[in-house]
Write a sequence for this structure.
């Protein structure tokens, strides 16, 4: 019996994407409200700010359902977003580094509705090839696993 081949992903030929620095991805939108943080995310951000991981966690983090996240600011913006620029860009969390290549938005319909419709970087710049997209998706999945297991 002949094996059925997997249907190619819509992004197999690559996706044009280049961050435009709009800051739109740094604003809370419904289910994507929290910026979650692993221990490594908190450590990296603390180092950048020249404070201990514990101090960073006490000053900038909350915890919901056992998972650390950045505290809410006064509005929907990330607390580190100033003038549409990330103040901790070099140490930003994996959740931010992997945007817009998150597993939950990588089907054509969701990409069009939830990413391309609001992110000005979609359709701009060079193509991100399928190999790099897969690597980013794997990084995001590992990060999610680390969150769930408190790493």
């Amino acid at each position: 019996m002949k094996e059925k081949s997997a249907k190619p992903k819509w992004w197999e030929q690559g996706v044009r994407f280049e961050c435009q620095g709009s800051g739109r991805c740094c604003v809370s939108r419904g289910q994507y409200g929290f910026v979650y943080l692993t221990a490594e995310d908190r450590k990296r951000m603390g180092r950048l700010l020249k404070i201990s991981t514990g101090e960073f966690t006490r000053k900038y983090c909350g915890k919901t359902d056992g998972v650390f996240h950045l505290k809410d600011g006064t509005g929907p913006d990330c607390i580190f977003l100033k003038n549409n620029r990330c103040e901790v860009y070099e140490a930003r969390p994996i959740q931010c580094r992997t945007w817009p290549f998150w597993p939950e938005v990588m089907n054509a319909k969701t990409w069009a509705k939830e990413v391309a419709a609001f992110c000005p970087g979609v359709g701009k710049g060079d193509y991100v090839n399928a190999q790099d997209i897969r690597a980013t998706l794997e990084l995001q999945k590992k990060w999610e696993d680390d969150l769930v297991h408190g790493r």
The two ends are 44 Å apart (CA to CA).
